[in-house]
Amino acid sequence: MRKLFLLLTVPAIILWIGFSSTGSSDEASFVREIVKKVDRLYRSQSSEAELEMEIVTPNWERQLRLKMWTEGLHKTFIHILSPKKDAGITTLRIGTSMWNYFPKINKVIKVPPSMMMASWMGSDFTNDDLVKESSLLEDYNAVFVPARDMLNYYFIELIPKKKTPTVWGKIILVLRKKDIIPVRQVFYDEKGEEVRVMNFSDIRKFGKRKIPATLELVPLKHTGRKTVLRYIDARFDTEIDDSIFTRRNLQKKR
Questions:
Q1: Are 143 and 35 in contact (CB under 8 A)?
Q2: CA distance 115 to 165
Q3: Which residues lie below 8 Å from residue 73, measured CB to CB, with a gap of 6+?
Q4: Which tens digit of pLDDT belongs to each residue from 150-162?
């Protein structure tokens, strides 16, 4: 019986070793393709979307309604529609530069790189989260990692490259295998402790594209806080006027 066991297992081990050594480059390419898809999931070549943002804290709650335009991974324009006290505030990002316009003081303020990880409009989303200055594909090294449910989900560990300015020690990305749709993103600090979790839900089709329409961001070290971003409408790969992504458009009356 022992001989039979050895006859069955040894070839399997040899086959596994051979597959691992020859398939490593294929696996790396596959991981990169998955991360690339996630990077472009909400952006594509271009996008135009209307969203609601709900900010919940132990002491207060508020809701924002906004419009967002993107072009590739390097241009973003956001216009706040409501509430009235915030209406008209705009945000522009081109490459690594970002500006905010505040109509009450009629002033454009450039956001320094050191503030990209700061809160956007008092929410749990950072400036970087909203305008996507960083790219998971370009700024992180990605590998598959073992987990409990590997039959239905991919688990990808993202480690920032040395050149990447970020406060995250690593990010774990969880995606459904059947359609490469993200369901969860866990952010860790440099000590390896979980800092915040992003949950993706309400998967819907906007045109031909299927995306999670609700993103809930929960900071784990601040009890009672969360920010929920909901896509009300979205269009992808549409013609967007170049004038949208200009500093002049920041102060344009609408």
A1: no
A2: 11
A3: 39, 40, 43, 132, 135
A4: 889 999 999 999 8
In whole angstroms, how far apart are CA 172 and each of 62, 136, 193?
29, 11, 12
pTM value is: 0.84
Residue 175 has pLDDT above 50, yes or no: yes
Q: What is the helix, strand, coil percentage profile of the chain, to 5?
A: 25, 45, 35
From 230, 206, 232, select the one nearest 217 (Cα to Cα): 230
Helices (H) and strands (E) in the chain, counts: 4, 13
Distance CA 168, CA 188 (A): 6
Q: Coil, strand, or helix at residue 236?
A: strand
pLDDT at 180 over 90: yes
Among 232, 181, 173, 163, smallest CA distance to 197 is for 173
3-state secondary structure 4-48: HHHHHHHHHHHHHHHHHHHHHHHHHHHHHHHHHHHHHCCCCCEEE
Rounded Cα distance, 87 and 20, in Å: 55
Q: 230 by DSSP, 3-state: which? A: strand
- Contacts of residue 122, Cβ cutoff 8 Å, sequence gap at least 6: 55, 62
Cβ contacts of 97 within 8 Å, gap of 6 or more:
110
Residue 46 vs residues 52, 74, 127, 213, 242: alpha-carbon distances, Å: 20, 10, 20, 17, 11
- Using DSSP's 3-state secondary structure scheme, residue 68 falls into strand
Residues with Cβ within 8 Å of residue 88, at least 6 apart in sequence: 79, 80, 101, 103, 254
